[in-house]
């Protein structure tokens, strides 16, 4: 049925089918939702659908598809999001009103609720417009009263209850001023209650109307952009589902969509009912299907849209598909609109610019942010930035979500190429200084992980600042990284690839992808692709002699090393016919020696080739030169000496120390686990065990101390409870087994009760003063009692606050 409760028109049905046809993916979510909704409510399991994912991933689109399914099944739907920027939904009464209006558009009246809500809005507007209203009344009333209503409705175990009351006390003076103003201006007690506790009045009325509708249809409630609305909806919603406002029909289905999943701690009691679903981007096949359904079949256009979509982000694909482009020249980059969506609720220009600038580095921390903003503001801005939904914590700092970062980078580079270059140069210089400050020699730095980490960031920012100018550095550097370790070469290629994407440099992207493919193949003991990459590099004029030598060495040796890894090292000499191009390999190594005579690897590898060729004297000459002229690892030295001597007795001796299959993996030119086992230091093992024992003893000591502190704090809390309870019946008896959680819960209840007593006394004094027959002595007596109880309440709150802080300190004690 359509919104005005009539059958759809022919045109509407056609549009409906077209929309269904354009919906791609999310089959699992659709199937589950349809199955649940198709099951009679008295036979279905209670389910809360929780859809989460980064902005633009398709949460709202999926919710709209849920709407269509519910409509097809003749069920009732109501929808709430954060609203338009000019008409925000930022409190609960407004959210309830929007839901009621959604139901009424479908022909279902919420008369009782609407009548009271109309009074609420009218009286609130009158009070807000009153010239005698306290300062900040218009902005603060709804938020503070809603919070007060929730505080009375909810019951959360543990210190949360005390914290809520302490926070309430922090704003008590302001709230009290508002309440007193309401009491002065409104004479009708029902209206006073309505303005003071709107949710306590409006929610039961809303439920009454909702339950009547649900007698005939399933009611589907969809809450979108929950990262915004959850701030005021979350507590109320859990109270609603827990029947704290009255009976809630079981013929009710809830869907909550937001960037972050529902908190597993806060929603723990309902976890068994929650169907969690974190949405993923479209695959390339889903993207192609979606675009084909939209009439876009040109493969070049599909590939360009995929490239600009940050790996299948549905929002961006939809934006680019709107114009049905027929060539890549008319595909519009959606980065500006995407960035606007990511920052749409932030109006502060400084913070918006910070969010853009902070996307430039691959990793964030306070020191890096200080390069981009004024030093005096860096702390506040850093705290603000960490709170953004697209910023995630990382072991080494903070990172932007990849999708958000890619769009922001493209936008930054488009709006100000000069600023882009300047900031990346600044970041490159920063990382260059960091790696130089380590004070390492040329030999030391390549093996140092910290130097490698700084160098990779320097590489990335240098390429972003000027990819063409830094191409020489990138290619030579990758060969140096390859000569250090395959892991470092992999990370170097990945940094190049990210810079190529950020700058749209096809050359950088092409080389980095070739490097990555070659390394992947090499890891699987296939040398074909890596040899092709090295051969291509040798055709480039940008290579330095020492790096050209590296390319020549590995161009020849990778096929040989891959062959050795697949065979028993001691059988290789008799399988030389299976090794291709030994002459070519030897020639490459000889060229490498002429370019870099100080690389001992060249002589080792050439000696190895000569052994396979049967040139034993030449092999011994190369290997003896290594032993005589270079400082090499002791284990490598032993292996070379073993080969030169051809001491097979020694080989059999070593072989006898290990299982046959382990020894067969023995590699002459790589330090592996087997040789590590031969030289393993038993004293080091004992030292490690002793250190582990000390660590465990320290952990036990810390845990025992923490338990003792909690026990003492528990005793103090219960003593305070006993002192503040009027009768023994008002508190449970203290036992050793009673938890701090239960203690804080009871303390919270006592604080709430004491607070209510003070509020009632204040109201009674006010009523006495306004009455016709004033008993001054009675008023004085009440005022004295009010003063005594207020002082005691403040003292009690202060002590509760101190205990909460003490618990925080105890819980902050961590065990390594």
Describe the structure in your own words.
The protein is mainly alpha-helical. It contains 37 helices and 9 strands. It has a 5-stranded parallel sheet. Strands 3-4 form a two-stranded antiparallel ribbon. The longest helix is centred in the C-terminal third of the chain and has 43 residues, at 682-724. The two termini are 61 Å apart.
Distance between the termini: 61 Å
**Structural class by sheet pairing and helices:** mainly alpha
Portion of residues within helices = 55-70%
Low-confidence stretches: 1-24, 145-172, 569-576, 647-679, 727-737
Order of strands, main sheet, comes to 2-5-6-1-7
Main β sheet profile: 5 strands, parallel
Whole-angstrom Rg: 36 Å
Shape: elongated
Number of DSSP helical runs: 37
Task: Give the integer mean of the pLDDT values.
Answer: 77
* Range of strand content: under 5%
Secondary structure tally: strands: 9
């Amino acid at each position: 049925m359509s919104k005005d409760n009539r059958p759809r028109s022919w045109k509407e049905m056609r549009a409906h089918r077209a929309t269904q046809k354009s919906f791609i993916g999310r089959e699992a979510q659709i199937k589950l939702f349809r199955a649940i909704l198709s099951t009679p409510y008295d036979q279905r399991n209670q389910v809360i659908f929780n859809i989460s994912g980064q902005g633009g991933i398709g949460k709202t689109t999926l919710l709209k598809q849920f709407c269509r399914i519910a409509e097809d099944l003749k069920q009732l739907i109501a929808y709430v999001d954060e609203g338009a920027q000019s008409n925000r939904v930022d409190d609960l009464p407004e959210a309830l009103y929007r839901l009621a209006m959604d139901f009424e558009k479908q022909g279902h009246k919420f008369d009782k609720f609407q009548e009271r809500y109309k009074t609420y809005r009218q009286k609130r507007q009158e009070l807000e417009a009153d010239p005698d209203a306290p300062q900040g009344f218009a902005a603060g009333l709804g938020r503070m009263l809603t919070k007060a209503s929730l505080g009375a409705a909810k019951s959360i175990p543990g210190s949360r209850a005390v914290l809520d009351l302490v926070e309430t006390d922090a704003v008590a003076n302001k709230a009290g001023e508002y309440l007193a103003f309401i009491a002065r201006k409104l004479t009708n007690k029902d209206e006073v209650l309505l303005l003071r506790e709107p949710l306590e009045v409006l929610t039961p009325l809303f439920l009454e109307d909702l339950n009547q509708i649900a007698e005939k249809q399933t009611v589907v409630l969809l809450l979108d952009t929950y990262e915004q609305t959850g701030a005021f909806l979350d507590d109320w919603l859990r109270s609603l589902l827990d029947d704290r406002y009255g009976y809630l029909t079981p013929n009710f289905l809830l869907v909550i969509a937001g960037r972050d999943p529902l908190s597993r701690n806060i929603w723990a009691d309902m976890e068994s009912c929650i169907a969690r679903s974190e949405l993923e981007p479209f695959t390339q096949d889903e993207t192609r299907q979606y675009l084909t359904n939209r009439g876009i079949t040109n493969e070049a256009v599909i590939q360009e849209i995929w490239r600009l979509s940050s790996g299948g982000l549905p929002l961006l694909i939809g934006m680019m598909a709107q114009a049905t482009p027929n060539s890549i020249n008319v595909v519009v980059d959606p980065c500006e609109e995407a960035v606007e969506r990511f920052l749409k609720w932030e109006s502060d220009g400084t913070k918006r610019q910070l969010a853009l600038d902070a996307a430039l580095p691959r990793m964030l921390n306070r020191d890096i942010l200080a390069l981009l903003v004024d030093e005096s503001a860096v702390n506040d801005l850093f705290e603000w930035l960490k709170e953004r939904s697209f910023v995630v914590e990382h072991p080494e700092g903070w990172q932007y979500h990849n999708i958000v970062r890619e769009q922001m980078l493209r936008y930054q580079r488009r709006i100000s190429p000069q600023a882009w270059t300047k900031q990346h140069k600044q970041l490159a210089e920063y990382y260059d200084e960091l790696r130089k400050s380590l004070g390492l020699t040329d030999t030391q730095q390549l093996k140092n992980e910290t130097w490698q980490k700084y160098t990779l960031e320097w590489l990335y920012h240098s390429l972003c600042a000027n990819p063409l100018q830094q191409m020489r550095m990138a290619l030579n550097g990758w060969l140096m990284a390859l000569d250090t370790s395959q892991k470092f070469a992999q990370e170097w290629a990945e940094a190049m690839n990210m810079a190529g994407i950020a700058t749209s440099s096809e050359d950088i992207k092409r080389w980095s992808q070739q490097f990555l493919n070659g390394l992947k193949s090499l890891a699987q003991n296939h040398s074909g692709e890596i040899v092709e990459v090295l051969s291509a590099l040798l055709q480039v004029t940008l290579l330095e002699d020492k790096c050209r030598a590296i390319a020549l060495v590995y161009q020849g040796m990778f096929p040989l090393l891959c062959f050795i890894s697949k065979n028993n090292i001691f059988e290789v000499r008799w399988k030389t016919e299976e090794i291709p191009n030994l002459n070519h390999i030897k020639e490459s190594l000889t060229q490498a020696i002429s370019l870099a005579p100080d690389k001992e690897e060249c002589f080792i590898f050439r000696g190895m080739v000569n052994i396979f060729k049967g040139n034993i004297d030449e092999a011994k000459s190369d290997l003896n030169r290594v032993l005589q002229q270079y400082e090499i690892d002791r284990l490598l030295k032993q292996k070379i000496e073993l080969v030169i001597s051809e001491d097979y007795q020694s080989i059999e001796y070593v072989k006898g120390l290990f299982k046959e299959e382990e020894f067969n993996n023995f590699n002459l030119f790589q330090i592996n686990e087997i040789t590590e086992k031969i030289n393993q230091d038993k004293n080091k093992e004992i030292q490690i065990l002793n250190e582990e024992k000390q660590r465990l003893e320290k952990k036990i000591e810390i845990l025992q101390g923490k338990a003792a502190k909690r026990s003492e704090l528990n005793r103090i809390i219960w003593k305070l409870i006993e002192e503040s309870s009027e009768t023994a019946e008002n508190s449970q008896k203290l036992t050793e087994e009673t938890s701090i959680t239960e203690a804080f819960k009871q303390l919270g209840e006592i604080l709430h009760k004491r607070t209510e007593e003070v509020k009632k006394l204040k109201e009674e004094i006010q009523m006495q003063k306004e009455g016709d027959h004033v008993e001054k002595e009675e008023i004085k007596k009440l005022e004295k009692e009010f003063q005594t109880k207020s002082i005691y309440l403040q003292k009690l709150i202060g002590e509760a606050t101190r205990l909460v802080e003490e618990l925080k300190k105890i819980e902050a004690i961590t065990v390594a």
